[in-house]
């Protein structure tokens, strides 16, 4: 039986912890890293056999109290604890989740109007797979020299970041951007575990070693804002703050913020760094 996301998270988190993390002596050398299943079971007040069933995906309906007890035993806090609880709720229903046909890949007219109204602030819309579904003229003008729109078909932020060599040249904080996009796909997989197209996108990206190294579904990132450091062939070195706004349950509008105190550059209001360390 295939493991579900809850089981994968549980196993990965147990492997991360050391006896010293939970106030236990290190003891003898261990054959495998992390806490033993029996040690977590004792801390959570459940049997080792029951914990094994959860890790193997044979039990997919743990009670809220059991999930909370295991979360305590694994020292889960904040976003990770919430993520763990959501995985537990979804663990028995992944096969019943809607498939890729439920994804909305068309941008509503109202969202298109918002994109136009934001001009000259660059803004665009992404779907659950990080496909870029729509954008305004300011964003197109800015990203065209970066090669993001060069390939046929729909541009995809993750695919561009990991597979287009231009991305490493223009994104000065490439590693941070790669982490953000990987985390976004991890959150999407939790939210839409039955989306076949989403799963296919993730599986294809996992063939890239840099993505595979980052693909840790048990690591949760809740970041919806940040900064891109771009070495632009036209505008030079620019810092672009961005915010993500939920448009609907499938799509998000990403706005590249402007600094009104800065002069416009070719119709774009972008935040320029005072100094860039080479």
Helix content: 40-55%
Query: Given the helix and strand composition, which structural class is it?
Result: alpha+beta
Could you report the average pLDDT, rounded to the nearest whole number?
81
Radius of gyration: 22 Å
Name the helix and strand elements from N-terminus to C-terminus, one letter apiece. Answer: HHHHHHEEHHHHHHEEE
Number of helices: 12
Q: Beta-strand level of the residues, as a percent range?
A: 5-15%
Low-pLDDT segments, ≥5 res? 95-101, 258-267, 271-278
Say how many strands there are.
5
Give the strand order of the largest sheet, numbering strands 1, 2, ... along the chain: 2-1-5-4-3
Major sheet summary line: 5 strands, antiparallel
Distance between the termini: 52 Å
How does the overall form come out from the CA principal axes? elongated
Explain what you see.
A hairpin with a 3-residue loop joins β3 (225-232) and β4 (236-246). α2 packs across α3 (48-55) and α8 crosses α10. The chain contains 12 helices and 5 strands. Mean pLDDT is 81; it is low at 95-101, 258-267 and 271-278. Strands 2-1-5-4-3 form a 5-stranded antiparallel β-sheet, with helices on both faces. By secondary structure, the chain is α+β, with helices and mostly antiparallel strands.
Write the layout of secondary structure elements.
Blueprint: H1 5-16, H2 37-44, H3 48-55, H4 64-73, H5 78-90, H6 109-117, E1 123-126, E2 132-135, H7 137-143, H8 157-163, H9 165-170, H10 174-191, H11 196-205, H12 209-214, E3 225-232, E4 236-246, E5 252-256
Antiparallel strand pairs: 1-2, 1-5, 3-4, 4-5
Helix pairs in contact: 1-5, 2-3, 2-4, 4-5, 8-10
């Amino acid at each position: 039986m295939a493991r579900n996301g809850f089981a994968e998270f549980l196993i990965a988190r147990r492997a991360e912890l050391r006896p010293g993390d939970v106030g236990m002596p290190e003891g003898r050398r261990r054959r495998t890293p992390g806490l033993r299943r029996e040690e977590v079971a004792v801390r959570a007040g459940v049997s080792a056999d029951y914990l094994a069933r959860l890790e193997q995906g044979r039990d997919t309906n743990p009670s809220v109290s059991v999930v909370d007890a295991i979360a305590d035993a694994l020292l889960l806090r904040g976003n990770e604890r919430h993520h763990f609880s959501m995985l537990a709720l979804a663990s028995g229903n992944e096969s019943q989740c809607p498939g890729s046909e439920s994804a909305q890949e068309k941008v509503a007219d109202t969202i298109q109007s918002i994109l136009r109204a934001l001009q000259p602030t660059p803004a665009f819309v992404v779907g659950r797979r990080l496909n870029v579904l729509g954008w305004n003229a300011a964003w197109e003008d800015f990203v065209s020299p970066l090669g993001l729109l060069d390939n046929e078909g729909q541009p995809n932020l993750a695919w561009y970041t990991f597979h287009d060599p231009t991305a490493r040249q223009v994104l000065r904080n490439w590693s941070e951007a790669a982490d953000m996009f990987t985390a976004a796909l991890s959150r999407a997989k939790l939210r839409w575990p039955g989306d076949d197209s989403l799963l296919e996108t993730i599986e294809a990206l996992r063939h890239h070693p840099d993505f595979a190294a980052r693909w840790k579904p048990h690591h949760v990132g809740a970041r919806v804002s940040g900064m891109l450091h771009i070495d632009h062939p036209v505008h030079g070195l620019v810092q672009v703050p961005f915010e993500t706004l939920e448009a609907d349950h499938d799509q998000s509008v990403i706005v590249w913020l402007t600094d009104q105190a800065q002069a416009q550059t070719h119709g774009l209001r972008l935040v320029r760094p005072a100094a860039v360390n080479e």
